[in-house]
Amino acid sequence: MKKTLVLGATDNPARYAYRAVHQLKQHGHEVVPVGIRKGQVAGLDIRNDRPAAEGVDTVTLYVGPQNQPGWYDYILDLNPKRIIFNPGTENPELEKLARQRGIETEEACTLVMLSVGQY
């Protein structure tokens, strides 16, 4: 299973990030929810700091490109195998930085990937 950091996690059930945390857990993945505000989602505490997370396979983004620059160093220093840019989070600058470090990038929807078994 793939340890996944969900950046933009929220306790708001109307948001896709909320659904992603639930679906990732249901598919057996270890999830690290990181968001702007503390709260809980799927029984997990949402961190609003930049937690050290070892062995992150995937960072899945639910933060718009205008709010991503402050997270660049944190995301890249996690050294994940891949970063998923969910719809609305596409960012050529961060994609380029990631690829320069050997991190795979995908413009895709985590929820769709999980539902069709391609996560």
Your description of this structure?
The protein has 119 residues and is an alpha/beta fold. It has a single domain, classed as NAD(P)-binding Rossmann-like Domain (Rossmann fold, 3-Layer(aba) Sandwich), CATH 3.40.50.720. 27% of the residues lie in helices and 22% in strands. The chain is built from 4 helices and 7 strands. A 5-stranded parallel β-sheet has the order 2-1-5-6-7, with helices on both faces. Helix 1 (16-26) links the parallel strand 1 (4-7) and strand 2 (31-34). The model has no long low-confidence stretch (mean pLDDT 97).
What is the N-to-C succession of helices and strands?
EHEEEEHEHEH
CATH C-level name:
Alpha Beta
Q: What's the main sheet like?
A: 5 strands, parallel
Major sheet strand order: 2-1-5-6-7
**Name of the CATH homologous superfamily:** NAD(P)-binding Rossmann-like Domain
**What's the architecture in CATH terms?**
3-Layer(aba) Sandwich
Domain unit count: 1
Number of strands: 7
> What is the end-to-end distance?
10 Å
Number of helices: 4
| Proportion of residues in helical segments | 25-40%
- What does the average pLDDT come to? 97
Q: Uncertain regions: pLDDT < 50 for 5+ in a row?
A: none
Radius of gyration: 13 Å
Helix/strand/pairing class, anyone?
alpha/beta
Classify the fold: give the CATH topology.
Rossmann fold
The percent range for strand residues is 15-25%
Overall, the morphology is globular
